[in-house]
Amino acid sequence: MDYGSEKWLLYFSESQPRRPAVIRQLLSNHLTTSALFWGRAYGLLDIIALPLDVNNFEPTLDELCQKKLLLETSKGICLTVKGRSRVEELKNKHQFLREPAFFNGFDLKGWEKQFYLLVQVASELSYQNNKYFAITNDLKAQQLFKNWFRRYGKTTLLGEITTSLTDFLAHEPELNAQLFCEQLTGHGRLGQTKAQLAKSYQLQIAEIEVGWRDLCARYAKYLLDQNFELAKLVMPYKRLTNLPASTEKTYSLFLAGKSIEEIADLRKIRKSTVQEHLLNVAILANDFPRERLLSPKIKKQIMDFFASCPVLDWKFQQLHESYPEISFFEYRLCQIERIIASERKA
Amino acid sequence: MKEKLEAILKNEFGYSTFKTGQKETIESLLAGKDTLAILPTGTGKSLCYQFVGKYLKRSVLIVSPLISLMQDQVEQLQFNGEKAVVALNSRLSFAEKRFVLQNIASFKYIYVSPEMLSSAEVLSALGQLEIGLFVIDEAHCISQWGPDFRPEYLNLGKIRKKLHRPLTLALTATATSKVAQDITTSLGLSQTGNVIRYPVDRSNIYLGVQNFANEQKKLDYLLALLPKLAGKGIVYFSSKKKADEINDKLVTKGFKSAVYHADLELTERFLVQQQFLNDQLDVICATSAFGMGINKPNIRYVIHYHMPNDLEAYVQEIGRCSRDGRPGIAVLLYEPSDLKRQEFLIEKTLPNSQQIKYFIKHQELLQNFASEETQLLARLLANGYRKDQIETLVKKRQTERNDALQKMYQYLKTGSCKRQFIAQYFGDKIENVHSSDTCCGADQAPPLEKLGLLGESVVRADGKKEQDYREILQQLFKET
Question: What is d(CA B322, CA B474) in angstroms, rounded to the nearest whole number?
């Protein structure tokens, strides 16, 4: 089995059984309330929309179980001791995404185009050439760059790009830096495609892809952390919110004081959909005003009922038998609150 | 006048003479005549409208059917220093589109997809402009009888009226007389218009066909032929998977080869295209996604591993060969299962009756599907076609496409002159048919030596030392 399949080990834990479907849904940006809930519980919200191919995900996990790298339990899949030591090996040997938060916090694809363009323009400028085919026709990237350039000029551009790339890459393993630079295009130099690099370095294309994205993301973070002026080209790619548009609408009505019924009426959607939207916000945003939806009395009843039970082992059915008046929505809100509180404690 | 035109050609475009049909087209337009120009591939059709735009110093609006083609043209203009150029198509985000429409008057060359042009918002922005020239590129798409029928193209006549009938140029490389008539009528050019037609024939390209008993034999032949060919070339496939597979074989054998198809990301497509244009690659394994707008004069061979669906596509694709006028070679490789593959592909790109029935009820779901047949269905529904009309149209298209494929099959099977066959199909009269053995041939070794195309083996070990990444950075950013 190759690295391509073993990379999934990185998303499992030795101490916490995890459901494969949740991981697949998070990776493929298929964000149901349940996927988000378990994602938060596993501490895996950072992996939302990671650019990895999840085709064949489950069959591959079966193979990893057969190799005793993973262990299937009734609550989900765990990493074995053998699996954990393989994870350590993988982290030393292979490319993996070390800044996953960047992928859902930023529009990485957009930044990639900006970065390609930035390198090309700086390179051509350093040779005083203005006759070349632009590597991207992306209007946003071109417009942002023009505005930046008008403000900071050629000296800042050339000074910062050489310093930042040299310093940033100096801390990377030699091979990673090499593969990264071979993909850059500028004056008298066309980058190599991922397939070409895979062939000449005898690596898999997937690995080249992951390495490129990882360095692209971390270079952006480096520019931000070190306060380069070039960081102003990264900021426009920051996503203002992770919430889908429809959830956002529901949430702003809720913040404006509307009740669940009123929102459902106004938006012509079902009450249960409004509740799902609000649960999603409660999972993603730490400052969600839960108290508006969860009375202290109900909260106390739930907490007392599950007093000695770990939060991820709570069962709604058990609660429902003793307190039929408590809704699943209230139960879930309380559970989310407990998970966030235990994260804070940790 | 004549000297003036040539002076502009030299100063603005850097050429000393016009290519076939360019001058006639430009003169016709400058005389104020709407023009349909049917010019062979490789004659620089886009220069005609770029020239007129420069001459009249007014905006040129170009309707273009393919996003990739649009992008190529925009890049080419930008490369030549023309910055006031934009492509209005579905790749723009909402904010970008708004920016472009608000600043529309600042662009000299505006490329627009027919779908975008059908939007009231876009049309009203364009209505404010004084359009110097309205161009319809790949105008054969207008015709219901053309091979690439696009329903939005049928609205162009109405749109032209709304834009106050600006001076119009319809351009195509391949139009039978029926298609040509349809173009002029739909656009309303028939009363005052001028039709300029040059034969599609490219006499400097040898036309070869090779038949094989099975695919393995075909592959063996390709692998034996490529090392013998001098210069750079393209091998066309109808399947991305096959293109990948053969490219892998070629790279393993030491060819400087790369693959180009729709699965590649845009930046990678850019890189492969530029590597090829800069002679860093010997051969490209491509699908039909490659080549529109590619202007590399010294492509010496175009090999088809799979047959195209019609002669129009074949002539377009081999037309990328030897645009500098020197000898080039086109070889079509055929084995019996190829015909079935193309029949299947044709069937797959048209919606079947079940799909029509389903999506008419669930039109909102169509946006989730990107396949060719669902896209066509979406366009037809958006243009107000009813179920029975769609069914009739699809049936008709199926028959037409199968007929066109049969013509393609006849071309590869004909025992007489291939060049003559193409000329007859397009209704062209060509004079020196089959003058020598460098004209065409079937199942015989192409006369590479006579054509000056016999090369030394391009297969070589690459002795180039890899640059260290620090050296790459030093090369990229010259110290000042």
Answer: 37
